[in-house]
Design goal:
The chain has 189 residues and is of the alpha/beta class. Helices cover 27% and strands 28% of the residues. It is built from 5 helices and 10 strands, in the order αβαβαββαββββαββ. A hairpin with a 4-residue loop joins strand 6 and strand 7.
Length: 189
């Protein structure tokens, strides 16, 4: 997804917010092609590791902060052009997703693109693990499998427009897994 965005979406003067950056892999990739990248994550350990890597590599257009996604409004004055949230939505409860989308709508300009990649109810893991609710399962960790039609109705109601959509397997294949994913790029109307 990061490579696709680099080819089709990201411009050299863009400022990117990488939500739930984890080990920072995509943030480090984006900083080669964008003006500035901000990575946020709840994990203090991941952020500490990423900051150490910035110092070692002497990167000056990348910063990491130990923040939850609920704090994205702190970046409203950073001229963010792209909010990137890969494998984030399916890792959070729906009420947190709702707050996340509302904060984007409220605090960022209409030209800010929102790039999302998440597991859907068509993913093989949806049938595995301990069932918590209709769309929530726990295997090695919590996942909420997103009903794409319901999600599309939600973003339409919030007045987001889908400018790119791709679903299926082979989007993020590893040696052990080939999840059924959805990739969306949204803009505010």
């Amino acid at each position: 997804f990061a490579k696709f965005l680099k080819k089709k979406v990201i411009k050299k003067n863009d400022n990117i917010l990488d939500v739930a950056t984890g080990n920072g892999r995509d943030a480090f990739y984006f900083c080669k092609y964008a003006n500035f990248v901000f990575g946020i994550d709840n994990s203090k350990i991941a952020i500490k590791f990423n900051k150490r890597k910035i110092r070692l590599k002497k990167i000056n257009n990348l910063n990491f902060s130990n923040l939850s996604a609920e704090k994205i409004s702190l970046f409203k004055k950073k001229n963010i052009n792209l909010i990137y949230a890969r494998f984030f939505l399916h890792a959070i409860k729906e009420n947190i997703e709702d707050k996340f989308l509302l904060k984007i709508k409220k605090h960022f300009c209409k030209s800010t693109k929102v790039a999302l990649e998440f597991r859907t109810t068509k993913d093989d893991l949806f049938k595995k693990g301990r069932k918590i609710s209709k769309n929530e399962r726990v295997t090695s960790h919590y996942r909420r499998f997103i009903d794409l039609e319901k999600f599309k109705r939600k973003i339409k109601k919030l007045k987001f427009k889908i400018i790119y959509k791709k679903t299926g397997k082979n989007l993020s294949k590893t040696n052990s897994e080939n999840p059924y994913l959805c990739r969306l790029i949204l803009v505010s109307l």
